Design the sequence.
């Protein structure tokens, strides 16, 4: 089993990605045309457990019918890929284990707050959005009054949050590979290699700090050192976040990836979740610049712990 660990982890990431794609489909099932009098209507017919159900899609039109056919084809392809991944996992000896009760509670807490978390992360990134606009993008994928780039950033955050909140991903150890996959998701549509370690110099706005080029083996070692350290889980999550931000592991999307990466660890260890509230963004950015430029990390660590760490109430 140990020799197959990296294969299993990659397959679990693939499974979570496929499941997120499946959940994003606007319809599920096969298109069905029903006639009532002189009118025709489109439904999506699917089997749930032992029952067949029909969901109304709209008045018949060639455009809607073509859309439903495309969605149905994509759904079948995703299911086929999921079956293949699950078969490979089974062949490697993997079986899904039940998450501990406190982790399940933390997971449900994060899911219940996902829309607000996405909104506040978008604000941290300078995305010009309101919570209703963010909610509209999350639910329908489109909204008026925002640039296509900002809409894409919100959608990418949605996909990344759905990835880390998948039970299989939560059950997987927090690692550099999880971080890279998160970065790929938040950079989707902006960079072809959004999850690849940075190979070009970058500068950070409002700061004189110039991060050196990251070395993959060093980044992996430093992440593992934080994970092995004898400190509380909430502090580990905060330190993971700050390390990834300061290192600037990727060409772009580092704050987004760092917060999500920290939350993968925190949620999987029932240690709450880390989100910088909209009201705290200016103060956090000031402290972050000071941290980049050499100020003792204790100041920003205390800030994040007292003002940005949220825990489910039992």
Sequence:
């Amino acid at each position: 089993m140990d020799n197959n660990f990296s294969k299993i982890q990659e397959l679990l990431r693939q499974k979570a990605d496929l499941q997120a794609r499946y959940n994003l489909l606007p319809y599920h099932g096969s298109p069905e045309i029903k006639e009532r009098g002189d009118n025709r209507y489109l439904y999506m017919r699917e089997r749930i457990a032992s029952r067949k159900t029909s969901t109304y899609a709209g008045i018949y039109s060639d455009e809607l019918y073509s859309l439903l056919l495309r969605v149905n084809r994509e759904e079948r392809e995703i299911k086929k890929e999921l079956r293949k991944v699950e078969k490979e996992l089974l062949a490697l000896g993997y079986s899904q284990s039940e998450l501990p009760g406190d982790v399940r509670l933390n997971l449900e807490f994060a899911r219940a707050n996902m829309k607000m978390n996405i909104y506040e992360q978008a604000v941290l990134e300078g995305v010009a959005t309101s919570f209703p606009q963010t909610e509209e993008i999350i639910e329908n994928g489109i909204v008026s009054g925002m640039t296509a780039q900002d809409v894409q950033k919100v959608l990418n955050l949605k996909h990344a949050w759905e990835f880390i909140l998948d039970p299989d991903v939560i059950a997987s150890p927090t690692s550099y590979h999880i971080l890279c996959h998160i970065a790929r998701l938040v950079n989707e549509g902006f960079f072809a290699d959004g999850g690849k370690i940075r190979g070009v110099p970058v500068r950070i706005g409002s700061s004189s700090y110039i991060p050196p080029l990251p070395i993959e083996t060093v980044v992996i070692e430093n992440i593992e050192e934080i994970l092995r350290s004898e400190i509380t889980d909430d502090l580990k999550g905060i330190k993971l976040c700050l390390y990834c931000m300061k290192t600037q592991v990727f060409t772009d999307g580092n704050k987004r990836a760092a917060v999500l990466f920290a939350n993968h660890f925190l949620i999987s260890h029932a240690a709450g979740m880390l989100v910088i509230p909209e009201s705290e963004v200016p103060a956090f950015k000031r402290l972050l610049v000071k941290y980049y430029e050499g100020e003792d990390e204790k100041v920003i660590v205390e800030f994040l712990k007292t003002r940005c760490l949220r825990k489910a109430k039992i």
Q: What stands out?
A: The longest helix spans residues 62-91. The mean pLDDT is 89. Strands lie at 30-36, 39-48, 51-59, 273-274, 309-310. The chain has 13 helices and five strands.
